[in-house]
Each structure stands twice: as structure tokens, then as C-alpha cells.
Amino acid sequence: MDYKLQFAQCLTNLLSEHLTKQQVYELIEVPKYASYGDFAFPCFTLAKTFRKSPALIAKEIAEKLDDSLFEKVEAKGAYVNVLLNKTTVSKQVIETVLQQGNHYGDMSLGEGKTIVLDLSSPNIAKPFSMGHLRSTVIGNAIANIAEKCGYKAVRINHLGDWGTQFGKLIAAYKRWGNDEKIKENPIKELFNLYVKFHQEAETNEQLEMEGRAWFKKLEDGDEEAYRLWKWFRDESLKDFSRIYELLGVSFDSYNGEAFYNDKMDRMVHLLEEHGILSESDGAMVVRLDEKELPPCLIKKSDGATLYATRDLAAALYRYETYQFAKALYVVGHEQSLHFQQVFLLLEKLGFAWAKTMVHVPFGLILKDGKKMSTRKGRVILLEDVLKEAIALAEQNIAAKNPNLENKDEIARQVGVGAVIFYDLKHERINNIEFSLEDMLKFEGETGPYVQYTYARAGSILRNAKTVVTSDIHGLEDEESWEIAKLLAAFPNVIQKAYEHLDPSLIAKYVIHLAQAFNSYYAHTKILVEDEGLNSRLALVRATTIVLQEGLRLLGIGAPERM
Ligand code: ARG
């Protein structure tokens, strides 16, 4: 349904000796004013070849261009402007969407290829913060989009379940821990211990040493240390699963940092073999001076391995397990140096696939303009936010539609949808100011607005007593034309979202489609019994299909009623 491509084809038929279809395609613009046309082809670059003025060339092309696809072809200055034929195009688009259903927009770009995504990856024994929400929902949406493009997507939750912080946590537990309290409310209690540890450590140097010693024990396989770690991990996972269930996100693997403990020696050997490991103050590092990056720390002087070492081992393991065509790391931009180091190191080891690894950074969620920090306790808990959002959705339902069937599930879809959409509508790389109030608005550019539009369109279809048939006429009015153009653009939007690895393109798209639909609804008497009825219903049906699929790609449900 790429009409730009079809216009490019018509032009290429005339210009094939001089420009390829691709070149033509890239030259085509969308005019500033809709009245100029749907597309414009600038003739400046052809002036040299034809030794004529661009305006004359435009005139000649306009005269020769003839296709039932266009309602009007016109040379305006150096441009050939075309207006698509509303009747032909809207009929084609609606028919295609109805025929293909939720497969409309499927692509074969990634056929036979696997893409692995490292996403979510919260840290054990710490609350699941709003920060981890971004990685989870952005990563999940990118995975959905990649699947729509034909890739097999593997979602990996690289749990932060190893590292010096567990030494500290065990040390804190040994000093102040209370089993009963931990069992009652594991993450909260463990987190309290962790915060207390850092507060006390400011005045008590002994603590840091204890923490380091416990981590060393843990790495050496000490039984008590291991048992406590395992307990903390299991309890945390129970808490996380609840959140993932609410969010409707699942993973193919929960292999976290600890999973690579027995795979790091091999990595260290590889680095040695390549002669790139060097010593620095007793620690082992790889120097990355050639790219002006700070050295990458592989082993501390006490032999403890690091975050980067585990990421190196994980990358190799993933390549050997999945033979990925691409590996994405959906992690905040503050870790960008870390990934530069890791990717460069893998390249130095001669792995050709290192070039296919991409850090997909995203902005922070700020609270009053400041970064949230688990350590300082300035943190908003995702689970609280989700619960509040769901409660608000419940209130709305109770007020507007108290007899709604399946109320609880719908409230979940709407509340959670609000939170996910709020995140995804922001360009991935931008920081977001946390505002529960904005997040939970059920009008404006929000998830619930799109969901509501979907449900409204669905109710029109239910109220129409006829079944939509394939006997569709084209539609000519401005409002349906807006919808038809947007429907036609959907595959392109998906592809762009994939290329930019940015779900916000889809979030903005569904908002536009919902707005176009609501304006259509306000202007048109859809259910009047006349010869246009079936075509109007077909347009409504096509809109519901694309809205639902757009929301699905974002990881958001579309309730039939709300
Ligand atoms: N657990 C880390 C954090 O919360 C994120 C891990 C990202 N993934 C990775 N392979 N390093 O900051």
C-alpha cells in the first residue's frame, strides 16, 4: 500500500534511462500544503541531464504521466504534483486491510533471521523501578515490531543477580536481617537492608570490607553465601513475575549475570590468547586507547569478575546459542560507555558478529527534574504506579459502565495500557518527567483514548445489523480520505519504527488514526441505510483492525468494550 512507491514506479517508467526507482523514490516529497497534492517530484536534478529548465521538465513529465491512480497531475514550478484518486485508493486500501486482517503490514524483511533482545534486566533484591519499565516496554515493543517484520525475536532478561552488591546485602543481612520480615515482604525488606548498609557505610569503613569479603565467598562457592543469595534471588523473581504478568510481557530466557559464572574463564583465556589482557594495579584490564576509551576492567585485584566480563561471556554464549543476525541491548543511555567497550572488545577478539550488536539507549525517567536513585531511596515503584492506574480505570468503569462484563481484566488492560503508552509515545532517547497525573489521563494523547476509539468503532459495527461485505465503493469525503491515507501508511510506519528501533512512531501513528476516526465519526452519519453503508462500515472495520494491531505492537490490549 505504498503509494509513494507506486508514484515512483510511474515516474521510473518515464525516466528509467536516467534514474533508478530507488533514486526517484528518495526524491519524492510530500508537499507542505495538502491542496498542492499528495506527493511532489522535484525536477532540479534532471536539469543537467536534459539540458532544460526544471520547470520545463516538470511540465513534460506531467503531460506524459497518466495513471488511473491519480485524480490530478500538475506541474507547479519545478515540481510535478500529483493528487491520488481518492475513490480508487480508498477502495484498494480498505479491501487490502479487510483481506489481510491482523496480518496487514506483515513483512518478510527478517525471514529466517533471529534477533536477540536484552531487555528489562532488573536487579535482584531491589525494587523494580520506573527506570526498568522503560527497558521492558520499549524492548518488548521493538521485539513485537521485529516479529512483524519477519524476524524471530528472542527476549532475554539479563537479571542483575550477581556482583559486589550481593556481598553487601549478605553483610547487611548478617548484621540486621530478620527472616520473618523478609518472608513477609521480600523485596521491600531486602531493599531496606541495602539502603541501611549504604547509610551506615558512610561512617563505618568496616562495612565495605565485610561486603567485599562476602562477595568473595559467594564467588568461591561458600555454602552459606550461596544459600542466602539463592533465597534472595528466588524471592525477588516471585515479585518480578507479578509485574511481568500485569504488564503482559514474557521472556524466552531469564539467564542473568550469574548464569555466566562458569563461562568467564573461557573469556579470560580468549583475551589472554589474543594478548590484549594487561595488568594495572593488580587488576586485569584491556586497554582501549586506540578508540580513546578508558580501559575495560576484566578482573579485580582480588580475582572478582565484573559486569563487563559477564556481558562479554553472555554475548559469546548468545551467539553460539542463537546465531543471531542482530543483538540489541535495550538499556539506559548512561551505560553507553560500557557497551562501547564491550562491543569493541568483542571486535578485537575477531568476532565478525560483534558488528551486529547495537546498544539501544533510552532517556531517564526524572522525578522533579532529577534522576531517580535506588540508593538514595528516591524511587517510584512501578508496581504502585500500575496498581494506581488500574484502580483509576476501575473507578471509570464503575461510573460509566458498571455492568461491564469481565471488568477486572478490562481495568487491567486500560490502566496498564495508560502507563505503557505514556512511556512509548515519547521518543525513545528523550528523558521523561514522571507524572502520574499525565500518565493516567484518559483523554488527549493517551493509551485509553486509543482504546476508547477502538471500542467505539467496535460498537458501531455491532449496532449495524448488516455484515460487512466485499462490495466496497471508494469513499470521497475528506474525513474518510484522511483515514484511508493513514491506513495505507501503516506498513511504512512499521518499517520506519523498526529501522529507528523506536516504538514512538507507532504510538504517534495510532493517535493520529484515532483522531482521524473520531473526526470522521463526528462528521458522518455512518449507520444511515443508503448505498454507501457497506463501504462506510468497511472503513470502520479496517480502522479497528489497524488500531488493534498497532496497540498490540506496543504491547497494549484493545478491549472490545470499556
Ligand atoms: N541490571 C542492569 C541495570 O539494572 C541492566 C543490565 C542490562 N543488560 C546487560 N546485558 N548489561 O542497570
From TrEMBL:
Keywords: Aminoacyl-tRNA synthetase, ATP-binding, Cytoplasm, Ligase, Nucleotide-binding, Protein biosynthesis
SUPFAM superfamilies: Anticodon-binding domain of a subclass of class I aminoacyl-tRNA synthetases, Arginyl-tRNA synthetase (ArgRS), N-terminal 'additional' domain, Nucleotidylyl transferase
DALR anticodon binding domain residues: 450-562
Annotated GO CC locations: cytoplasm
Localization of this protein: Cytoplasm
Residue positions of motif 'HIGH' region: 122-132
Limits of the Arginyl tRNA synthetase N-terminal domain: 5-84
Record Pfam families: Arg_tRNA_synt_N (PF03485), DALR_1 (PF05746), tRNA-synt_1d (PF00750)
The enzyme's E.C. designation: 6.1.1.19
Catalytic activity, as annotated: tRNA(Arg) + L-arginine + ATP = L-arginyl-tRNA(Arg) + AMP + diphosphate
Subcellular location, principal: cytoplasm
Classification via Gene3D superfamilies: Arginyl tRNA synthetase N-terminal domain, HUPs, Isoleucyl-tRNA Synthetase, Domain 1
A GO MF term: ATP binding
GO biological process: arginyl-tRNA aminoacylation
Enzyme class: ligase
Record field: transmembrane: none
Homology family: Belongs to the class-I aminoacyl-tRNA synthetase family.
Quaternary structure annotation from Swiss-Prot or TrEMBL: Monomer.
Name under which the protein is recorded: Arginine--tRNA ligase
Organism of this sequence: [Anoxybacillus] calidus
Gene name of the encoded protein: argS
